[in-house]
Amino acid sequence: MRQPLNVLAVTVLSLNAAGVFAAAPAKVTDYAMKAQKVAPNVYAVITPARDFPSAANKGWNSNSAFVVTKDGVLVFDTGASETIGKALRQVMAKTTDKPVRWVVNSHGHGDHWLGNNAFAGAEIISSTHVRTHVTQEGASWVGRFTTMTGGITGESRVVAPTRVVDARTTMQFGEVRAELLLSNGGHTAGDVVLWLPEERVLLGGDVVYSDSAPGTFDGNIPSWIAFLKELEKLKPKVVVPGHGRVADGAVITRQREFFEQIWAIVQAGHEKGKLDHEILPEVRQKLAKYKKLYVNFDDRIGRTVSDFYQQVEASAFK
Ligand SMILES: [Zn+2]
């Protein structure tokens, strides 16, 4: 039998006086899972990892959040495996004894929903696109993460969303009002984010990154920029990203500007007949300030420029 993960040590952190979080990301040696209070009834569970699931990060590479209501608990993203989902449940049990009644899956990438099976009986809400992706690609996500983590996360069963929402929808969870917003193509085609207007908290999934360079490999950049503009208008006080530490609304603007600047440079280069690798040095130079803001900037920027280049090229032939 496999040993259980060492992600189960539990404490509850509170917001610091500044409201958000000036400190650098935790060292990737600390995998104790903690609930971090970001509003009176909202908690973030933030991994120190900034990469894909691996044996080193115990397969725990993505953030989750939960909202405690008088009628039960809502979980936003369930992690990269059932083991992670079960660890999340244990963390939540330190904060509330209410049952988990609702799960929201932010998108189809396996690190955000493979923990669904740890929340049996809950209604699982996402978009049709996510449900289709989970149903069709779920088994391959399990295989991929099992390989990437050397099997450390154990078995995961594919559990698809049970309820789909395909347009901006206001929903009531106990006494908490929430809006589900859809990107219609951003980080992925089916992104769902959750906005809590009373608390002014945005649970952003992978639509918003804080201290990590955005993963653009499945993205639709023009739609993503448009969606970020929509999210900026909400003026969130707290943003819980899918990867990276908890932040405030400024990270949305910062990411939109990052995308717009890269898009402009790539478009200008493309018009001059340059290839993506010929444009990359200019992007590196003009966006150098993001090296300090995004810890994995150097690892990701080449791929990002290639992703943008393909989309600029496609849009030039429309
Ligand atoms: Zn993702």
Overview of the structural elements:
The chain is of the alpha/beta class and 318 residues long. It has one domain (12-316): Metallo-beta-lactamase, Chain A. Helices cover 33% and strands 19% of the residues. The chain is built from 7 helices and 13 strands. The chain has helices at 82-93, 128-148, 221-234, 250-271, 276-286, 290-293, 297-316; strands spanning 12-13, 35-39, 42-45, 64-69, 72-76, 100-104, 123-126, 163-164, 169-173, 176-182, 192-196, 201-205, 238-241. The strands form 2 sheets. The chain has an 8-stranded mixed beta sheet. The chain is globular and about 60 Å long. The termini are far apart. 48% of the residues are buried. Zinc ion (ZN) binds at residues 107, 109, 187, 206, 215. Zinc ion binds next to loops.
Number of helices: 7
What's the architecture, going by CATH?
A: 4-Layer Sandwich
Output mean pLDDT. Answer: 90
Strand order of the largest sheet: 1-2-3-4-5-6-7-8
Number of strands: 13
Structural class: alpha/beta
Rough shape? Answer: globular
Bound molecules: zinc ion
Looking at this structure, what is the CATH superfamily? Ribonuclease Z/Hydroxyacylglutathione hydrolase-like
Unreliable stretches (pLDDT < 50, length at least 5) are 1-29
> Cα-atom Rg, whole angstroms?
19 Å
CATH topology: Metallo-beta-lactamase, Chain A
Rounded to the nearest angstrom, the distance between the terminal CA atoms is 55 Å
String of helices and strands: EEEEEHEEHEEEEEHEHHHH
**So what's the CATH class?**
Alpha Beta
- Proportion of residues in extended strands: 15-25%
